[in-house]
Amino acid sequence: MLLFVLLGAICVQGASRHLIKKIHVPGDYGWDYLTADSDGRRLYVSHDHEVVVLDLDTGAIVGKIPGEDVHGIAIVRDLGRGFISATDPGSITIFDLKTLAVIQRVPVGADPNAIFFDPKIGRVFSADRGSKRIPALDPKTGKVSAPKNGTRRSSTAVESPMYCAMELFVVPKSMPTAIPAIL
């Protein structure tokens, strides 16, 4: 816990934050993750049974991507694709960034939640709370590389200029403590 507090203090140190604008997203149902695509100028907001897509400059809703119990959103700009983790049951929805049309739903586990794209490895990862695994999806083909059996729990952190935490942890049952996985 102390590590997270220290990392948070390092990230926030010297940063001045203030409210720029409030954007109303209609609907009286659950919220989860949001993802900003700075290059595409869009904000993806996980909103229970859909992802609401907003224009970052105007705040206007530009579209919605249907789903069921949606969670995180990852963007792979070079491929023009986005990825949504969902408990519908247990899939990653692949969608087109321009049209927001669903391309494919890929089964990945019981309850995928956090999701991110690692550009160095070229894979989309999702932390699955149900199966306690971190499946890797090839964003070009939509095919899943399942992790080896025996993963006890999973945690995620993303390497990006926007984040401070930098490692993906996979903990085999035989290991008593967490170790960083080198992929």
Structural overview:
- The chain contains one helix and 14 strands.
- It has 183 residues and is mainly beta.
- The strands form four sheets. A four-stranded antiparallel sheet has the order 1-2-3-4, with no helix packed on it. A four-stranded antiparallel sheet has the order 5-6-7-8, with no helix packed on it.
- Strand 10 (123-128) and strand 11 (136-137) form a beta hairpin.
- The longest helix has 11 residues, at 2-12.
- The model is unreliable at 1-10, 148-155 and 158-183 (pLDDT under 50).
Task: Give a brief outline of the structure.
The chain has 183 residues and is mainly beta.
CATH class annotation of the domain at 22-147? Mainly Beta
Low-confidence spans: pLDDT under 50, at least 5 residues? 1-10, 148-155, 158-183
What name is given to the CATH topology of the domain at 22-147?
Methylamine Dehydrogenase, Chain H
**Could you give the distance between the termini?**
25 Å
Number of strands: 14
Strand order of the largest sheet: 1-2-3-4
Strand content: 35-45%
Counting H and I runs of at least 4 residues, what is the number of helices? 1
Major β-sheet, in short? 4 strands, antiparallel
List SSEs in N-to-C order: HEEEEEEEEEEEEEE
- Name the shape in a single word: globular
Q: State the helical fraction.
A: under 10%
**CATH architecture heading of the domain at 22-147:** 7 Propeller
Structural Rg: 17 Å
- Output the structural class: mainly beta
Write down the overall mean pLDDT: 78
- State the fourth-level CATH superfamily of the domain at 22-147: YVTN repeat-like/Quinoprotein amine dehydrogenase
